[in-house]
Design a protein that fits this description.
The chain is an alpha+beta fold. Helices cover 36% and strands 32% of the residues. It contains seven helices and eight strands, in the order E-H-E-E-H-E-E-H-E-E-H-E-H-H-H. Helix 6 packs across helix 7.
């Protein structure tokens, strides 16, 4: 089983206005396609989180031919949410993409991240199916494969990079309230539970934390 990280660049000339808005780096900080559902052969439903002006997104979507309905939530909050229903046949960039990924042998991991004019995502599945999926995407989108890895990988689950002792130290730290505010435990408390010296417990925690933080920052920078 393989995991690939991809970057998608839609052709803005053929993209509907609301999609161009999601890809406009100056319009908002970031947007995410949280989930979607192709209820039948004609209609699909999508939910987006928008760290920016969700009202503008909703306005553009309502003006787009092929969009059946738009419902906006938390419009005044830092992150607003939009539920949009559209007709795939009238919006080929959506319909063609949906057809390409609607197959057995692979899954698209949610969410997709819209940042800096690109869409960043992850797909997991059989290598041959993944390749045929990429090849089947419509001409209105170009796809760059950023990484191909075995699944699970550190990108998908950074906990796989932790040693057994690091996992145990972090688990004990959480259970004792070391990461609570205010802090409920010390290195000495964790060391006593682990049966080691405080310096050793501190070392396990620092190494484990460093791996998780680096993995988290790498994921944030690239896509998710």
């Amino acid at each position: 089983m393989k995991h690939i990280r991809i970057t998608v660049c839609p052709d803005l000339d053929r993209a509907p206005p609301f999609l161009r808005y999601l890809l406009d780096a100056e319009a908002h900080d970031e947007a995410r396609a949280i989930d979607w559902n192709r209820g039948d052969s004609e209609l699909s439903t999508h939910i987006y989180a928008i760290a920016g002006d969700g009202s503008r997104f909703a306005e553009l979507a309502r003006e787009t031919t092929g969009v059946e309905s738009v419902e906006l939530s938390a419009a005044e909050a830092r992150v607003s949410y939009a539920l949009i229903e559209l007709r795939d046949a009238e919006l080929p960039i959506f319909g063609g993409s949906a057809t390409a990924i609607d197959r057995t042998g692979m899954v698209v991991r949610r969410p997709l991240v819209y940042r800096d004019g690109r869409i960043h995502g992850h797909i997991v599945g059989d290598p041959a199916t993944l390749q045929s999926t990429v090849d089947s995407l419509p001409e209105s989108v170009s796809v760059q494969i950023d990484a191909i890895q075995q699944f699970p990988s550190a990108d998908v689950n950074p906990a796989t990079t932790l040693s057994d002792r690091q996992q145990e130290a972090l688990r004990v730290a959480v259970e004792l309230g070391y990461y609570d505010t205010p802090r409920e435990a010390t290195h000495a408390d964790i060391a006593e539970e682990l049966g080691c010296a405080p310096n050793t417990a501190s070392n396990h925690l620092q190494k484990g934390e460093a791996k998780l933080v680096r993995a988290g920052l790498a994921t944030f920078s690239s896509s998710l």
